[in-house]
């Protein structure tokens, strides 16, 4: 399976993730403490700041890695939460069918109709600006897609004969869902996860750009891009570096997601391995 | 083992009643002009160790009848009448009771073993799951039992088979696995819904022989549903012909095939014979 994935994207993403995980231990600088001797340093190898510093003298490379760390963390947490809720919701609705299904999916429709940005703004008004809030807001809306996809898939699986065979074998609905339906959903779920993560990263960046996400001195890719944008005439590197990094992460995960979809696609003739 | 046990200690109800007794069973589905009967007043009885073949064309209600025996008629269907298995009423019984019955006292073999096995799970897992649920057998003991059962349906190297996925097996092997899975709990009644239709002719004969042999060895009753009269002629003791949801004619296989009374049965037999002519008689 690994052989069919895009190698360059895998390596790049692995490096970025590794850097984001290890940054508190490997970086000589702190993401928050200014280096007063080197404000607004441009690219200078000798100073020890590989990508220079920002207007407060904080090392850009370290802030990039911290930004990645926060962005990826929010993305992973939000994706897994939405996956968990979405799969359970979709499988239950799809398998039970009838009135339960109708009620569950109508509530998904209702949540779908919530306008996202006003929703987040209302949340910040009530709870204050917080990274946790960001995570809840993203999680609350992104499970809807997964629930719909999983429900559709469950509806077709439910018609399959091996589900009938399990019922004839005396299995209870909970057992059938756990042993027979969810394993058969795993392919599509994994693919969807790899495609959800970059979407969530983008949403996070977007909200942080608007100032609704991570709060200074903590940073995320969106915050870095917003900071960079404010000085893009004087210090274009402050905008370019985080933007390129964001684009790389999103591109690599999308590539991997597409490749995974091909791997799991039954039509490619190698279904499950 | 089970039949010896039941000789010594027969269940009270089994003394007077056959294993399976169906009385006036009807299934109605809502239609545009009122309820439509897909099974209409079917009555039949089946003793231990007998094979009853049910013949009929598509849409005659054969499969619906089987589902009703398991209490699995889809939501919209309304079931009336009585199905008694070992003296116990199935129609209207609570789900928890039926779930204990299914796979344990009654088991079913499906038409297409490719679609009736979960493509994502190893054979071993699918077999031991049944044992864990009905017999509380887990781990090595469950695997041992599964291996035994695979061997007894004539599969070579059963221990290795446990690690395989369904798509790695041939059609005949898959159907044997299906049968092994159905027999794990030594059911009293085996329902076979077109068990040979999806198989090629040589494998068909093997599977039918296997069913006959298992019947002799385990003393269970088999209800064999098929549109193929040749299959019924080969293994069944009795035959019932269904048309439009009713049983229109029944009898022992030899007698009924020799002298069919109903015009529909005559036509059915004639059609089957006509198909055989090019094979049997060189032109």
Give a summary of the structure in a few sentences.
The complex is a heterodimer of chains A (273) and B (283). By secondary structure, chain A is mostly helical.
How would you describe what is shown here?
The complex is a heterodimer of chains A (273) and B (283). With 273 residues, chain A is mostly helical. Chain A has a single domain, classed as MetI-like (MetI-like fold, Orthogonal Bundle), CATH 1.10.3720. Chain A is elongated. Chain B is of the alpha/beta class. Helices cover 44% and strands 24% of the residues of chain B. Chain B is globular. The interface between A and B is medium-sized, with 22 and 30 residues.
Helices, strands, pairings?
The complex is a heterodimer of chains A (273) and B (283).
Chain A (H helix, E strand, L loop, with lengths): L6 H20 L33 H37 L1 H15 L3 H12 L3 H28 L2 H8 L4 H37 L11 H10 L5 H29 L9
Helix pairs in contact in A: 1-2, 1-9, 2-3, 2-5, 2-7, 2-8, 3-5, 4-5, 5-7, 6-7, 7-8, 7-9, 8-9
Chain B lengths: L1 H7 L3 H5 L3 E12 L2 E13 L4 E5 L6 H8 L8 E8 L2 E2 L5 H7 L4 E4 L3 H4 L6 H13 L3 H14 L5 H4 L9 H13 L5 E5 L7 H18 L2 E6 L2 H7 L2 E6 L2 E7 H6 L4 H18 L3
Parallel strand pairs in B: 3-8, 3-9, 6-7, 7-8
Antiparallel strand pairs in B: 1-2, 1-4, 4-5, 9-10
Helix pairs in contact in B: 6-7, 7-9
Order of helices and strands of chain B: HHEEEHEEHEHHHHHEHEHEEHH
DSSP helical segment count of chain B: 13
The N- to C-terminal Cα distance of chain B equals 52 Å
Mean pLDDT of chain A: 82
Could you name the CATH homologous superfamily of chain A? MetI-like
Total number of beta strands of chain A = 0
Envelope shape of chain A:
elongated
Strand content of chain A: under 5%
Structural class of chain B, by secondary structure, is alpha/beta
Question: Using DSSP, what is the number of strands of chain B?
Answer: 10
Poorly predicted regions of chain A:
269-273
Radius of gyration of chain B: 19 Å
What letter string, H or E per element, gives the SSE order of chain A?
HHHHHHHHH
**What is the approximate shape of chain B?**
globular
